[in-house]
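From the pipeline queue, job 12 of 40. The input is one protein chain; the requested action is below.

Action: predict structure.
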Amino acid sequence: MKITASPKLLITFSTLIIFCLPLILSAGLLWAESTTAGNIKKSPSFEISRNDLQNKIDSLNAKQGLDEEIKTRLLKFYQSTLDQFDAVERFQMLDITFQDSLRQAPLQSKALEKEIEREQRQLSRIKPENYKKIPPDELKLRLIIEKRNLSNLNAQIKKLENNIAVQINRPDQIRQGTLKVRQQIESAQDKRNAPHPVSESKLEIEARKIYLNTMISASAAELKALEIETISNPVRVAKLKMELQLLELKRKAVETVLDAIENTLFKLLQLETEIIQEALSQAEVELIGKPDVIQLITRDNIQYSRNLKNI
């Protein structure tokens, strides 16, 4: 015997999974954060804030008597360090975004479940016969509006399907990205700990190590963002699929309305054609016994009317 689950049961089960996932995955996030922090060794003596770095840049620009080549190399290091500060902020914002999605997805999915149930009820209430009561001009206007709605829904569904496909493939991309970032961190740590060139000045050594430290911090922020993105991916994909289900129900409703309107308008056109043909046939009958000139002119007009109707 084949056992099938009702749509409502499937929705409820999906929502239950979405509600439970954040609790399960949060533990993984805490472990991931501690693992990331534990694997990255920082050099406290070369930590610097953005404000302190900007002060260094201003002081360097104002300094007189320093070799221009050294100044250029220092400014290059400092500018690259500023770029790394920007990267840190960008990855921290991504981290916050994914953390929010992990918390909000269950609530959003619960609301989507109610919308899906409401849309299913509305779809079941669409009765084609109700459109017979609407005036033809209003039906024609409604037809234009519903076709536009269908086009918009198709575009939204296509965009959402592409987004879901991208998110489904993200875990593999994240794994590759994580490996690359870890390699960058190891490389930066090796460069920071390696003996400096003899020709390098004390200022250049400091600037290079400040840059490498900040780059390591940016990479650590990127790793953390990638980890929370991985953890939040299942609940985000589940929510997107529920959004897709809702849009597909809305599209089905619009298609049902369009079919009802088009069928009603077609029957009205058929009825109008029959009435006109009957009137033209009656006009031909009434021509009998009238002067030939009148018959000729009237028959030409009748034929012209028929030709117009067939266009």
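Job complete. Residues 1-5, 13-19, 22-35 have pLDDT under 50 and may be disordered.
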